[in-house]
Here is the input.
Amino acid sequence: KTKVYKVERWNPEPHIIAEAAYAIRSGKLVAFPTETVYGLGANGLDDGAVRKIFAAKGRPGDNPLILHFASSEDVEQVAYVNERAKLLMDSFWPGPLTLVLPAKPVVPNSVTAGLGTVAVRMPSHPVAMALIKVAGVPIAAPSANRSGRPSPTEAASVLADIGDDVDIILDGGATDVGLESTVIDVTGPSVVLLRAGGMPVERLEEVIEEVKLVPDEAKKKRSPGTRYRHYAPLIPLLLWKNGVLRHSPLVMGKRIGYIGIKEPPFPVEEKILFKTPENYAQGLFLAFRTFEKKGIEVIVAEWPNSKGIGLALRDRLSRAAEEEL
Ligand code: TXA
Ligand code: MG
Here is the structure.
């Protein structure tokens, strides 16, 4: 039976953290909040524990996982850390930035998917930090949704998706960023963006040279996670782009749920409006789940501009909409 514990975000209860950390050390699964989305955690150095993550999510085994750390020094245990990676860690950790580095042999193949590299990140959420510190091991954690579903931004979504397959859920309330971390590959001569996310590319470029955006096809090879349909609500999602709604016959006579910053261009059944692109990112995945519950038949989402968090928003929206277009 899954245990769900409410935890005080800024001051997580030590006895709860101790129990969850013990579960991690014992090879069990613990879902926990990060500043981006909820993660489904296991001991990242224990192959058997990591395999349980794949089973719980229904995740393809060729999609590697991120290892989470409470300090950047600890990364040396699992990866070869170059100067550029150090600079990025010093500048942006803790925070929503994941670095792909050459892996050391201690990292199980279930984590790396046999790629020879490992993704590492230090989350800034106090509950995540406390859990990793007390567990004393790197925690492997994908987003705590069933594979293909929108990532969970609150504990209730974790419970709904994978509640039966996780030992403990730490409920630290809603997450801040709402979208996953930015993933960059820093193994080669240039820095390559593998997944747009919570850390805007513009900020990275304040401290390093240009971040290369790679075409989708090449990206699929380098970052297997971007190969699958993702983040998708169960109902069709249409994009309202530059005043145009493609496939608009799909919405005729349907119950429409609208999300965006501007007012919807036509009458809708339900709307969720956000003040800023950051708010849009924070509320996007929950909006998908809310519309599903309310029996909405088509979602229409405003296409945001590409600045800052907008790049990640565009990525999630276009991949959630992919099958319908
Ligand atoms: O914000 C986040 O990153 C959340 C929280 C829980 O930390 N985690 C998360 O994990 O989004 P996941 O597994 O849902 O996404 C990890 C992404 C996938 O696209 C995966 O393919 C990529 O990172 N990735 C992991 N290891 C990699 C590696 N060695 N090389 C290339 N891509 C890798
Ligand atoms: Mg995910």
The chain is about 30% helix and 20% strand. The chain has a mean pLDDT of 93. The first strand starts at residue 3 and ends at 6.
